[in-house]
Amino acid sequence: MQFTSDSPVLPIDLPALALDIKRWAQELGFSQLGITDTDLSAAEPAHQAWLEKGFHGAMDYMAKHGSKRTRPQELVPGTLRILSVRMNYQPPATRDSWEVMADGESAFISRYALGRDYHKVLRSRLQQLCDRIAAHIAPLTDDSFDYRVFTDSAPVLEVELAQKAGLGWRGKHTLLLSRDAGSWFFLGEIYTNLPLPVDTPGQNHCGTCHACLDICPTQAIVAPYEVDARRCISYLTIELKDSIPESLRPLIGNRVYGCDDCQLACPWNKFGQLTAQEDFHVRHGLDNASLVELFGWDEATFKERMAGSAIYRIGHEQWLRNIAVGLGNAPSSPEVISALKKRLDHPSPLVNEHVRWALKQHEHLSAAAL
Q: 233 and which of 82, 190, 251, 259 could share a cystine (Cβ 3.0–4.6 Å)?
């Protein structure tokens, strides 16, 4: 895709328009909007080095787009500015995360996935924002307002863009941090040819803190600001489609979809804000569900319950794989053993392998107890 015109010559006050856009964004439920240019040259060497180390694992899409991720004008020619937005997602009235993880019979699901799929929610709101900008500009000029919206859906270096747009800074766990809201929010972007004034980049406030590095169950944060995705539980339970390495399975505990440990340990998240968006409220009791219960879902139930959820895209087979690992790490009980044995004849080799591993874990526990 290429924008159809160069920078439109607008007979309007661009700084005033930028303020209007920020106000409209808040009216649409975004917590903050910032504006930046397309220069990511400072971030490009570190991103390339990360790829060369193979830290992206099986996420081939991270490398196949070449420099489009770090050069926005190559992704969408004609781009002059990026509007970066954030939207809070921390749902209210959820069971405490640490309590869930300490309860080996429960299933922990990352807080961002307890409600509806953020891709759809943010994309819809971003489109509404663009529609409003277009309607405002149309009577004033014949020039084209060109744009393209992104919600984790294309090669976009969203954390770096958000930092440049003044929404916060890249924390040592590589997520964006805000002094006012921690990290419990989604990011989205609008690429546009509007020559709007840019905002002041965010400043780093991590200091000497290394809580996120210390807490990571698999030590995936191999250095400040550097994550080896191949060890990250979010990658292992969501992005990895094959067998989870056996050496990492015991470290996953009962985290069956994603991992929030680095965020939970971050001191800045004491400023985290609850979402005002009902779309991100807990659905189907996923904040307080047992491993055995979720493992009992057949494919039809999974599709029905997870329709409209980010979890839907991993599919039933991967869902069972993840929960089998959780059950392998759970305290032994007749209910756990029975649930696993019922899946021994599952037609998926992937599920079957992880079920057998889980049962062996309980055999070892039984032997050790004698």
A: 259
Q: Which position among 60, 152, 228, 298 bears the catalytic label?
A: 152
Provide CB contacts within 8 A for 295, sequence distance 6+: 320, 323, 324, 327, 339, 340, 343
Number of domains in the chain: 1
In a domain, 328, yes or no: no
Annotated binding site: 69, 152, 176, 187, 206, 209, 212, 216, 232, 234, 241, 259-260, 262, 266
Distance CA 111, CA 190 (A): 25
HSE (CB half, 13 Å, CA atoms) of 58? 12
In a domain, 289, yes or no: no
Evaluate whether residue 149 is within a structural domain: yes
Binding residues for cob(II)alamin: 69, 152, 176, 187, 234, 259-260
CATH of the domain at 37: 3.40.109
Q: Which of 178, 208, 209, 187 is nearest to 271 (CA)?
A: 178
Confidence of residue 370 (pLDDT cuts 50, 70, 90): very low
In this structure, is residue 262 part of a structural domain?
yes
The DSSP annotation for 105-166 comes to: TB-EE-GGGSSS-HHHHHHHHHHHHHHHHHHHHGGG-SS---EEEESS-SS--HHHHHHHTT
Say if residues 321 and 350 touch (Cβ distance below 8 Å).
yes
**Cα(127)–Cα(22) distance, integer angstroms:** 14
Domain hosting residue 130, numbered range: 1-92+115-240+258-277
Q: Residue 183: which of 156, 155, 208, 202 has the closest Cα?
A: 202
Model confidence over 96-112: pLDDT tens digits? Answer: 999 999 999 999 999 99
Residue ranges of the annotated binding site for [4Fe-4S] cluster are 206, 209, 212, 216, 232, 259, 262, 266
* Cβ(186)–Cβ(58) below 8 Å: no
Give me the mean pLDDT over the 163-191 stretch.
98
Q: Give the phi and the psi of residue 77 in degrees, each rounded to 5.
A: -55, 140
Let me know if 37 is a catalytic residue. Answer: no
DSSP state at residue 362: H
Tell which residue, 171, 147, 158, 153, has the closest CA to residue 40.
158
Q: Going by DSSP bridges, is the β-strand pair 32-36/147-150 parallel, antiparallel, or unpaired? A: unpaired
Contacts of 117 (CB under 8 A, 6+ apart): 308, 309, 310, 312
